[in-house]
From TrEMBL:
GO terms for molecular function: phosphoenolpyruvate-glycerone phosphotransferase activity. Residues 4-124 form the PTS EIIA type-4 domain. The keyword Transferase applies. The keyword Transferase applies. InterPro entries: DhaM, DhaM_N, PTS_EIIA_man-typ, PTS_EIIA_man-typ_sf. Keywords: Transferase. This is phosphoenolpyruvate--glycerone phosphotransferase.
């Protein structure tokens, strides 16, 4: 059974976006993890459409979103406005933040406690 919260990974590089969930699935088999990588033409960049697809295909109703670079954040924020799902966006180191969140979600740690752990990984 999947958890209440899922994770969405957004990267400018399609291969990075695909690879991080492979890592996370090793420690969080019951957490729904989806990704969006590259532009609509699979070039370097991000796509609000791909992000929306990642939101919608995620089995969870509430999402924790992680991204690599600033323009990905802009597309994430745009997709968040269009989505009916509750999305929490984190300005953390991508791999470390997503890995921390995934392991803690798998262990049924409360969101407020996960966010406290993520604070140390925040990019300032």
């Amino acid at each position: 059974m999947k958890k209440e919260y899922g994770i969405v990974i957004v990267s400018h590089v399609p291969e990075v976006a695909q690879g991080i969930p492979k890592l996370l699935e090793q420690v969080a088999k019951n957490v729904s993890i989806t990704f969006a990588g590259g532009t609509d033409d699979n070039e370097i960049g991000t796509s609000a459409n791909k992000i929306m697809e990642a939101f919608e295909s995620n089995e969870a109703k509430k999402l924790l979103a992680f991204y690599d670079l600033g323009s990905a954040k802009m597309n994430l924020e745009l997709a968040m406005e269009m989505s009916e799902k509750k999305v929490n966006l984190y300005d953390t180191a991508l791999v470390e933040g997503a890995y921390t969140a995934a392991t803690l979600l798998e262990a049924d740690v409360l969101l407020k406690d996960i966010e406290q752990q993520l604070e140390a990984l925040k990019i300032k």
